Amino acid sequence: MFSEAILFHELPLESDHSPLRLQLFGIKDNRPRPFRFDERWLNKEECEEIINRNWENGSNCAEKLANCENELRSWARQVYKDQNQRALDIQKRLTELLELDRDEGIVQEEKDLMAELAAIWKDEELFWSQRSGVNWIHHGDQNTKFFHTSTVQRNHRNKIITLKDDLNNVINKPEEISDHVTDYYKSLFTCSSQAPDPSILHDFPKLVTEDMNQKLCSLPSTEEIKAAVFDLGPRKSPGPDGFAGLFFRRFWGKIGEEFCKEVQDFFNSSMMPHGWNNTHIALIPKVLAPEKISQFRPISCCNFRYKVISKIMASRLKLWNPGLVSEMQAAFTGDRLIQDNIIMVHEVLHHFKNRRKSGNWDMMLKLDMRKAYDLVEWDCLEAILQAYGFDHIWRGWVNQCIRTVTFSILLNGSPTESFTPSRGIRQGDPLSPFLFILLSNALSFLIDKGVQKGDIQGIKLNRNCPVVSHCLFADDTVIFGKASMREASQIMNILNQYGSVTGQEINVAKSSVFFSKNTPEAIKDLITTHFGFPPTICHDKYLGVPTEWGKSKKETFSFLIERMEKRADSWKSLLLSPGGKEILLKAVLQAISTFIMSTFLLPLSITNKMDSILRRFFWAGSMKKRSIHWCKARVLEDPKQVGGLGFRNFHLFNLALVGKQVWRMLTNPDALWVKLLKGLYFPDRDFLSSRKGRCGSWIWNGICDTKEALKPDIF
């Protein structure tokens, strides 16, 4: 009832007891909300007339969109002002018509009223659907109440009512919160006073060829621009101009020609059109109940016009990235997957756990980069692009994308004052991930250089395995080496060099170091003191996968059961019909375990429990209720073509997902992770004739079991 209630602990005054002050309602925030193009308007002929009329006036896209915004605001205010009351009036009139004698006029009036009421209900569903952030429901019954509940819950979860500053003083006035948030991000996005020294890049390999530059720097055709428009999500949050992709898709026939011309003008002139690069920053909580502004993740909501430019550049760069970045980087590079790194790290930790020989000690550093995207130094990024050999035209486009941005923070739905950053790349910009992995490749370059010089040895799990020195997935960094002070010092020097050039900082509190089982405690203490973060005995996860495990798979993967039960318990099942629940279960509950099941073959006790959770929620609508199951479990899993509902059998789906790794091992034997597994488990034979080892890891044993299960039908 009181969703904005706050309890304050006041200072004791005349008593030795601290008074408690309960504030039931938040302080009203009257700041204006930004314009958003409403998906409901697409069903109105008047909307199309407004767009057509305003697109004939104005000198450029920005001016025409502004004119459309002004007229759409006033038009929508009139059209939707009394819609709820109109729905009630229609329902009242329909009730009256039921009492009258039927004739042709009454039947026609009833049909007209029903059609009008259905249109109002459809409008209401679209309104709440667009605001709910739910994008997995494509068909089914009317979900207005579900979407409304989702929107209210999300708004409440993201709303900032109070914050604490660096001195733990409580801030609860909207103006003070706004100033505090803006000052924090102004400071975060301001470049360091120390200019980065790119001298370490003097022997960086020049990998971009003249042919690559010609293709990267060519003028995009209208077909390429249109493809970018239709590839971007139509309902993704819009930027400050308020026009999402669905607007550009719907009216492409009218606006496409002029829009393509202005996009091509950017690529011809290397000048970003005024206002295109304005950006809202949405604050997404990283923890359940954030108290400080640092506990929010800044996600950039760019104008769709800008994102089309960024998407074109990202799509071109994506084609060449596999040849530009180290094979140790698994993110956004061709056919490399996140599972590659998970498998390698799991095998290393399995090796650490079983290592008992003395005198050969190994370590693994798991590094967390603080505000990785936000701290990227622009000058360093440009120096790295130049070292790669990117043409000055391409570098000019990149500079326009990152240096012309203007930020304003979306605080409880309203933008704060705007400011101009001097460093950082945006989470939410299609180009940013590709720029970041080019930047992070400098770390791979420095580590590889250290290995070549003998400063770093990396680790070699046995004589048949390749040397592995590090692996990266975007900013998730793992470095392997010998557990010695000499190697620890060399690694620290490399990290300091990398940080001084790029602006990247290690988050000591979230980083950790693992040691092989035989490493003496004295060596562990020396190395952990040197790095400044503790050894990990029971660390939680790497890339979402447990890094520590015991003998029981059931216990290790029980968190999947807990996560599914918690999610199912949180749903308001009464809001959904059986058809709605079916879509919800398939889109959300069945997807929770997909990532883990892509690498590990789970025990049957876990997958059977997952099947049970799904069936129980479908029939009872709650994990705390029992209900009659009106058909056999097999019927729910049968395809719809034969009368089932098409729910997945989790064990069979698990076999299919791990089977993908089996197929990748057969078709890509030169991948580093495949070479590692071959050196460990089948150095003298082919993969199809390999067997589970006595001390095989969970991943390897799961791959072998899957291979044997698939053999009769595939191999």
UniProtKB/TrEMBL annotation:
Name of the protein this chain belongs to: Reverse transcriptase domain-containing protein
CDD domains xref list: RT_nLTR_like
Ranges where the Reverse transcriptase domain occurs: 265-528
Signal peptide span: none
Transmembrane segments: none
Top-rank taxon, per record: Eukaryota
Pfam family of the protein (one): RVT_1
Organism of provenance: Linum trigynum
